[in-house]
UniProtKB/TrEMBL annotation:
It comes from the Eukaryota. The keyword Transmembrane helix applies. It is a multi-pass membrane protein. It is found in: Membrane. This is Putative pq loop repeat protein. It comes from Eutypa lata (strain UCR-EL1) (Grapevine dieback disease fungus). GO terms for cellular component: membrane.
Length: 214
């Protein structure tokens, strides 16, 4: 999951820059950003309780922070919120999520000491499901507008590459992790679907228009 999350972090950071430069978030789904922000919470708990290296413990916090910032951009550019309102909302939500994560870390550390493993597995699965659900939410906008908008194909490519790398790493393990296979495979398929929709609804009509001009 770490490769996939790192790709999500890079993609989200790129989206923030793009939104700022064009001063709009048309087509970008706030629901996707909320789901990704929420995904960072169980993943952060999983990585911290699992005693992963510092970089992997910090990575989910960055994902949550960037996702909340992008969500705030959606509220500012598309919903007409004032900067102060968006900033206040993000700060409050971030503080609440931080408190919940801290509580879960203490709870799962106790469970780990008692050799109870299912809470850790649940955290990993919940994070992956939220990330995939975030991608899935973008399909509703594609269905309504018959186009892929509000998201760059570089963003999609980076995320898909992260899922592909994670998927390949599952195959390289001594024991095949079926759960990991399903998690990474499903998100990769969703991203490939977004790219396919981009070709059908965006690229192909653009090519036909160019041919018509000639």
């Amino acid at each position: 999951m770490d490769n996939a999350v790192a790709a999500n972090v890079l993609g989200t950071a790129g989206a923030i820059i793009i939104n700022y430069r064009r001063h709009n978030t048309v087509g970008l789904q706030p629901a996707m950003m909320v789901l990704w922000a929420l995904a960072g919470l169980p993943l952060g708990v999983y990585n911290i309780v699992g005693d992963f290296n510092v970089a992997l413990q910090v990575q989910p916090q960055i994902l949550t922070s960037l996702s909340l910032i992008t969500w705030a951009q959606c509220q500012y550019y598309s919903s007409g919120w004032r900067v102060m309102n968006a900033t206040f909302a993000v700060t409050v939500i971030g503080a609440i999520m931080g408190g919940v994560e801290l509580g879960l870390v203490f709870a799962l550390r106790k469970a780990k000491r008692d050799n109870i493993e299912w809470p850790m597995t649940f955290m990993a699965v919940l994070s992956a499901v939220l990330l995939a659900a975030g991608v899935l939410s973008h399909y509703w906008d594609i269905y309504k507008t018959r186009s892929v908008r509000g998201i760059s194909f570089l963003f999609v490519g980076i995320d898909a590459l992260g899922d592909l790398t994670s998927l390949l790493s599952v195959f390289c393990q001594p024991r095949l992790d079926i759960l990991g296979l399903i998690i990474y495979g499903s998100e990769l398929v969703l991203w490939i679907g977004v790219m396919t929709c981009g070709v059908v609804f965006n690229l192909w009509p653009w090519i036909k228009d160019k041919k018509g001009e000639k």
